[in-house]
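URGENT: need a sanity check before tomorrow's submission.

F., can you look over the Nickel pincer cofactor biosynthesis protein LarB record below? I want to be sure the sequence and structure line up before it goes out.
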Amino acid sequence: MDNKRDILALLRAVAAGDAAPEDALLELKQSPFEDLGYAKVDFHRPVRQGNCEVIYGAGKTPEQISGILSAMHERCCGNILVTRLDPAAAEKVGKTAVLDYSPTARLAVAWPRADTPALGHIVVASGGTSDMAVSEEAALTAEAMGNRVTRLYDVGVAGLHRLLSNLDVLMSARCVVAVAGMEGALASVVGGLVDCPVIAVPTSVGYGANFGGLSALLSMLNSCASGVSVVNIDNGFGAGYLASMINQMEGAQE
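Structure tokens as predicted:
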């Protein structure tokens, strides 16, 4: 089981008489984690948070990543996210696991599930093409977690008409992820147009006074638009994860 939908399906099978309570209990109470020596793989993450554990690839060897993936796959986990995975490591890990890898986002989905739903509507908007790596990390994360995602790339405030031509898409979203570097103004503009939560993602794109994304971060934190929250610099994964939680809140799919 890799998400709360699988757990609910198991419980509904018990309620319908299609599965024995004892079998369901055994599946749920199996060891909550496995100690691999270099990692303690958390198998109860879906019970607590709704999705299986995500692997942060930077700083781990391909062998360590493969070992963690193997342990999770043995527990029937799918759509396992591996973030910040460089192409060389992805090539090695791909020899032992089924990977859907994006070199742009440096993100892999291991053992992708064909039955992944596309619920609700999340929009990922970027200020410029240079923000695409972070934007794709957010979009792919949300899609792997079962959300419908629309990408609006290169719609920054330097050419505001590009954003305004997509108002119908923005206003139909349940959550918008606004990704921008430079001065980070996109989040404030989007926040003033929509009635849903906006997750602002500052990027490290910009010239010297951008300070590696700090100027965009401070601009977004000081946004005058209501309903804008901010994640860390270049944290597309965190934005995609949070957008998924908002989009799939109880009753949001009605």
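My own read: The chain has two domains: 4-110, 119-247. The radius of gyration is 19 Å. If you see anything odd, call me.
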